[in-house]
């Protein structure tokens, strides 16, 4: 049984857009590459054909994975996100008690996690540690190297 994929409304839209793009434009591009490669002659020793067929297999695999994610998607409603307790959809500002540095993350499901956009998975060590805590709570997070970090929650907002 597939695991539920937790998404924000924005994440759901991104997955739908990617699926649409791959199912239409990208499929046409790959089909055209296969057609052109066939025109080179003998397909048994045609690296262009093999490459295009491999790309087609990867494309179809990604499309199936996206369809499965969308089928098992659980979309977070902004009305259900608390401003008092950290949960999926929360924008959390934390302060590292050792370094005094502050950072702000949006807690999202693992399908949307993207550190470049400061979107932290609810399944990551920090995300898991923050969920269920309130403003001014200090949480301890075990990091791969060194002692556990102490993070103080300084602000919680709704991020949807």
UniProtKB/TrEMBL annotation:
PROSITE patterns: GREAB_1 (PS00829), GREAB_2 (PS00830). GO terms for biological process: DNA-templated transcription elongation; regulation of DNA-templated transcription elongation. GO terms for molecular function: DNA binding; RNA polymerase binding; translation elongation factor activity. The keyword Chloroplast does not apply. Residues 82-157 form the Transcription elongation factor GreA/GreB C-terminal domain. Residues 5-75 form the Transcription elongation factor GreA/GreB N-terminal domain. Keywords: Coiled coil, DNA-binding, Elongation factor, Protein biosynthesis, Transcription, Transcription regulation. It holds the Pfam family GreA_GreB. InterPro entries: GreA/GreB_C_sf (IPR036953), TF_GreA/GreB_CS (IPR018151), Tscrpt_elong_fac_GreA (IPR006359), Tscrpt_elong_fac_GreA/B (IPR028624), Tscrpt_elong_fac_GreA/B_C (IPR001437), Tscrpt_elong_fac_GreA/B_fam (IPR023459), Tscrpt_elong_fac_GreA/B_N (IPR022691), Tscrpt_elong_fac_GreA/B_N_sf (IPR036805). Residues 12-69 form a coiled coil. Belongs to the GreA/GreB family. Necessary for efficient RNA polymerase transcription elongation past template-encoded arresting sites. The arresting sites in DNA have the property of trapping a certain fraction of elongating RNA polymerases that pass through, resulting in locked ternary complexes. Cleavage of the nascent transcript by cleavage factors such as GreA or GreB allows the resumption of elongation from the new 3'terminus. GreA releases sequences of 2 to 3 nucleotides. This is Transcription elongation factor GreA. The gene is greA.
């Amino acid at each position: 049984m597939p695991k539920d994929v937790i998404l924000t409304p924005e994440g759901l839209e991104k997955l739908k857009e990617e699926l649409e793009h791959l199912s239409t434009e990208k499929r046409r591009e790959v089909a055209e590459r296969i057609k052109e490669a066939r025109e080179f002659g003998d397909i048994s020793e045609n690296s262009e054909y093999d490459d295009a067929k491999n790309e087609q297999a990867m494309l179809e695999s990604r499309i199936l994975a996206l369809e499965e994610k969308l089928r098992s998607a659980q979309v977070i409603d902004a009305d259900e996100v608390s401003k008092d307790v950290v949960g999926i959809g929360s924008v959390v500002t934390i302060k590292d008690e050792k370094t005094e540095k502050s950072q702000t993350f949006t807690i999202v499901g693992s399908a949307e996690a993207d550190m470049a956009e400061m979107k932290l998975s609810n399944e990551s060590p920090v995300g898991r540690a923050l969920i269920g805590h309130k403003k001014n709570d200090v949480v301890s997070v075990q990091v791969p190297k060194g002692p556990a970090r102490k993070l103080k929650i300084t602000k919680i907002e709704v991020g949807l």
